[in-house]
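Bug report (template v2)

What were you trying to do?
Predict the complex of my protein with guanosine-5'-triphosphate.

What happened?
Run completed; filing so the output is reviewed.

Input:
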Amino acid sequence: MLGIDAHSFIIISAAFGLLCAFLFFAVRVGFPKNIGGLAQWGWGCLLMVVGAVGFTTRGQLPVLFSSYLPNLFIPAGVIFMHYSLSLFGGLASSKRLLALLCIAALGLAWVTFVVDDYRGRVIIVSGLLTVCFAACGMTIYRYRVRRFPEWFTCSIYAATACVMGTRFLSVLLYDGTLTLENDTSAIHDIYFTSFPFSLVAMSLGFLMMANRELQSRLESQALHDPMSGAYRRDALLEMLQREIAASRRHGRPMSILMMDLDNFKAINDTHGHLVGDKVIVHFAAEATQLLRTQDVIGRFGGEEFVVLLPQTDLHAALATAERICSRIAKSNPTELPFYTVSIGAASLDRSDLDTLSLLDAADKALYAAKRAGKNRVVAA
Ligand SMILES: Nc1nc2c(ncn2[C@@H]2O[C@H](COP(=O)(O)OP(=O)(O)OP(=O)(O)O)[C@@H](O)[C@H]2O)c(=O)[nH]1
């Protein structure tokens, strides 16, 4: 209808696909191995390139190579993309699309080699592509975290699935004999012209997703202590400073807990440093479980932790500290030695308190708890 040259767009698709594959194979080298799916995306693009090149040999090579296999390679490439998206999002990869591809291969063999039905081929391929693109979009929609790159890529998949679905329905409902020569509807043109651009947009979206993931992992590593998972000292001090300023501004209470494991040197000396490390990890996990989502726990030094309790007065902070102290004294994991914790609590209740004096008040309370016999909570 628009008189576009489908052949040219097939060549453009192959060229764009090749560039995307190259990009992903190159980018993958610099990414940590635990950000999965980049290489699989590259392979998916390459499969599509092979499919597109196969279409350009129409009339020169047998239909097996110029029509049948290319018609399967394009959806196989999208299925690889789906696999790559599942790997990236840490989701279980489904075998359903592969099963659908096998069924489509049988149907396609029938309409290619037995009855030579062009319309049948278009129905099978566009139907299969609609399902594959929709499945990719749904996979991204199931991710735990969806930021701009995820929404962008998901939208491209949804739009492409709509184009494919419209093509599928228009051919399914076509009243007449459809051939390669008279297949010139507007949706045919949109289908061919949009494909190379969708491929680039999807690859761009996935690259943005991978980049964003890398950025947040690096940020998280910079903020967290790798052993205990608690915030690092610097990060906690910064948050503490911000929370003190906000609490003052809004006239709301806030408290901190300074916690130190008791007789930790003896644990190290008796059971070794590795067991000592496990005790630290165990303590951080147990304490975190007893905190609210807005509370922040940071590792201040070796076996010393600080908890920041926003919007919490001294009374509530002491209750939290008591819960942590008694949970630790009662917890008895078989692989760890018995250990206890002493806690000093301090609240921002005087307007002259700043970060350092609040920490100092909690520290003094902590040492009062140590002097009073350990395994207890003392308020500043
Ligand atoms: N296993 C392990 N030990 C650590 C780590 N960081 C610090 N330590 C050890 O923790 C011990 C702390 O000992 P002290 O400061 O004497 O305190 P303590 O024995 O707990 O005595 P009190 O605080 O008075 O109960 C030292 O022996 C440090 O070497 C760590 O990351 N892992």
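What did the reviewer find?
The chain has a mean pLDDT of 92. The first strand starts at residue 254 and ends at 261.
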